[in-house]
């Protein structure tokens, strides 16, 4: 049985990479190497993707003291706490839920991913049985240093809408990073069935705000696994996460994605292999929720070969 599902294989075939990637599938393991286990254990935050009751993917960020992630064995990841009040996944991370996880260390640009299923849950912790574990290269990751936020007494504020506010649009228009959750849960997906969490990076403004319900983002060359695009080819729903690294706001979006393979907008963006147009369905802004802040970024060197959207 292949590691990749039909959507991923179709994408690999379309760009002429299917045979080459077939050999790389061995790097997707049903367990975490010791290096990954040590890496996860040192993180004070962890990106997580899961589905709501309707099958809509959501992307979020868990945060706590370093050590809140542990690995009782090579096939089990345990998370103790970290879910922030008002998170759109609150109440949804139950036994049987499929999840995608991403550990990312911005200072070193290291990142490792896993997919799996929640097999144990109590009020304070959850355990994930890992079905896929693999590393990703450091491409397009902006280097940042995190530090604890100075917390005030104000209660967290959660704003919900079906369109982007002016503040939301400003955050996205200035962003150099976002995260995307996607899934393919059909029974015929085989070993590729599940939820994925991925990172996207670019120059500030690389995500174009077309209007209050539409975004447009370039897709740069990657590892050719096509986990995200393969999922979207089968299920267009996705979850986006934008972070205000200065204020600690988390902007969660439920979207439907459209893959654009050709056209003048693609030609206008230097370095873009494809575009993703996102149609916004739900917006959740968790104001100041993140207990961390970040320094100004050091741009990923790969972005020197990419452009930006033309100014109208």
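-> sequence recovered:
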């Amino acid at each position: 049985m292949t590691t990749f599902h039909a959507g991923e294989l179709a994408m690999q075939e379309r760009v002429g990479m299917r045979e080459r990637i077939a050999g790389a599938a061995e790097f997707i393991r049903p367990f975490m190497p010791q290096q990954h286990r040590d890496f996860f254990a040192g993180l004070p935050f962890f990106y997580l993707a899961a589905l709501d009751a309707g099958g809509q993917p959501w992307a979020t960020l868990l945060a706590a003291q370093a050590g809140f992630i542990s690995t009782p064995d090579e096939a089990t990841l345990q998370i103790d706490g970290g879910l922030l009040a008002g998170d759109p996944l609150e109440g949804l991370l139950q036994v049987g839920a499929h999840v995608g996880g991403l550990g990312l260390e911005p200072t070193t640009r290291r990142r490792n991913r896993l997919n799996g299923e929640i097999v144990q849950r109590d009020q304070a912790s959850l355990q994930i049985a890992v079905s896929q574990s693999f590393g990703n290269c450091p491409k397009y990751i902006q280097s940042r240093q995190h530090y604890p936020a100075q917390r005030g007494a104000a209660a967290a504020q959660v704003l919900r809408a079906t369109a982007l506010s002016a503040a939301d649009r400003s955050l996205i228009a200035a962003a150099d990073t976002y995260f995307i959750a996607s899934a393919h849960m059909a029974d015929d997906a085989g070993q590729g069935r599940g939820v994925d969490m991925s990172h996207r990076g670019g120059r500030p403004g690389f995500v174009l705000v077309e209007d209050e319900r539409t975004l447009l983002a370039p897709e740069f060359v990657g590892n050719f696994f096509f986990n995200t695009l393969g999922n979207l080819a089968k299920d267009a729903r996705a979850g986006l996460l934008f972070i205000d690294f200065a204020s600690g706001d988390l902007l969660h979006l439920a979207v439907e994605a459209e893959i654009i393979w050709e056209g003048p907008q693609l030609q206008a963006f230097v370095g873009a292999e494809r575009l993703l147009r996102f149609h916004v369905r739900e917006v959740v802004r968790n104001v100041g929720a993140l207990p961390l802040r970040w320094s100004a970024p050091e741009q990923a060197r790969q972005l020197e070969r990419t452009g930006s959207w033309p100014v109208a």
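The longest strand covers residues 274-287.
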